[in-house]
Amino acid sequence: MTARPFTSVLVANRGEIAVRILRTVQALGMEGMVVYHAADAGSPAVRMADRAIEISGATPVAAYLDAAQIVAKASAAGAQAIHPGYGFLSENAEFAKAVAEAGMVFVGPTPEAIELMGDKVRARNFVEARGFPVAPSAIEDDDPVSFVDRARAVGAPLLIKPSAGGGGKGMRIVRDLALLDEEIERGRSEGLRYFGDGRLYAERYVERPRHIEVQVLGDAHGNVVHLFERECSIQRRFQKVVEESPSPGLTPEERTQICDVAAGIARAANYRNAGTVEFIYGAGEFYFLEMNTRLQVEHPVTEEVTGIDLVAEQLRIAKGEPLGYGQDEICVRGHAIEVRLYAEDSARDFSPTTGPILAYRPPQGIRVDSGVAEGGAVTANFDPMLAKVIVHGDSREQAIERAKQALADFVLLGCKTNAGFLQRLLADPDFAAGDMHTGSIAEKPWLAQEPELDQQRLIELLGAAALLLVPVRTAADAVSLQHAAMGAWRN
């Protein structure tokens, strides 16, 4: 393959992932650019970038989804490569094509790989045809007329999923087949709303499953390796909350098997750059779930245990360089945990919150990937994730304790977050024992509730808060020197 050197990279994203990518780009001596909407004008990513390029749109999100505008502005700015981060345009094959057609390098897989794995049905058929494990299922595309009957024949429990979906959107669990028709219509409606595609498929739902995913890397020279697995079973409504590596639920033999299968799938797809193969695991068996053709939110735990900078590897591969190392040279050291700090109120069904960031002091001595700063504001414009707290320890027990301490030390005032919920979750005995599944949070609703304060503690906190108010301080300072010098009253 011809080398494709570049010395400048534009990040077509925002928030913590834009900061994360810029950090490696600049550490490698390259120029780091970022696009931004006016809503992000004062963000850390904009302040950090060597050049920030404003984009516009009907809404802030629409601006970051405007592929034509981003490609045009990147080209005009002289960017030689574009890194899409995750979300937004990261798995848009047309965007990857447009970047290449404009003479720039897309830091990610080929458009063909994105198209193959982006269509969940096509990806599933591809994997099954090559002998890798998939769950018993019914695919609407095979014969739309008989789809409901074939889904019913798979048997309950079933998981209804949009063919073009991802991120848990539009997924429906059906335990009572009498409700199958109704749930199919709901799944179809959500698929149309989120992805503009109402096609569905149904597969056997594994009760109390664990979510295991494997990080893979492939280059343009035919080399493919895995960087071991991450466990992402702690989820809420199919959205990941806590991730860790290695998984506490796999035996060494199962780890070898699932990682080899993931690398085999990537190899069969002639996959290039970073990707993640996801599996559902339960009762000693695992099934292919999907492949994400991008950098994952939870990629830092893999970096912590392997010592490999995944963004640096993405950039090297995009330049046409070979991996330069083999599977035997990659090993896992210790244990890493990532917790996602969200702007949300766990006691109110995890509803999103907004507000000014009056104080922001992340814990010291550990990795915090964040895209917010003191003086900024949390709005409803974007996803409520504020930061990722990533800890590493010699053992899982040590990593858990470090995560607890990091959350206790994290100061973010002005906007309610899920920090308290995360602390209670990490202290849960089942989590400590590694006994978890994708429904663990739903089974423990008490973890979402804030503990009640006793009356004395409440009075103390209200008093301290009152003393921070300017009118109260002004009134206190207004006491004349003469009266203030009299000391305490006494009879």
Protein described:
This protein has 19 helices and 23 strands. It starts with 7 loop residues before the first strand and ends in a 7-residue tail after the last helix. Helix 2 links the parallel strand 2 and strand 3. By secondary structure, it is an alpha+beta fold. The relative contact order is 0.10.
Show the helix and strand layout.
Blueprint: E1 8-11, H1 15-27, E2 31-36, H2 44-48, E3 51-54, H3 60-64, H4 67-77, E4 81-83, H5 93-101, E5 105-106, H6 111-118, H7 120-129, E6 137-139, H8 147-154, E7 158-162, E8 172-174, H9 180-195, E9 200-204, E10 210-218, E11 224-236, E12 239-245, H10 252-268, E13 273-282, E14 285-292, H11 299-306, H12 310-318, E15 335-342, E16 344-345, E17 351-352, E18 355-356, E19 359-361, E20 367-370, E21 377-378, E22 385-393, H13 396-409, E23 411-413, H14 419-426, H15 429-432, H16 440-443, H17 455-467, H18 470-477, H19 481-484
Parallel strand pairs: 1-2, 1-4, 2-3, 4-5
Antiparallel strand pairs: 6-9, 7-8, 7-9, 10-11, 10-13, 11-12, 12-15, 13-14, 15-22, 16-17, 18-21, 19-23, 20-22
Observed structural traits:
single chain, 491 residues, five-stranded parallel β-sheet, alpha+beta
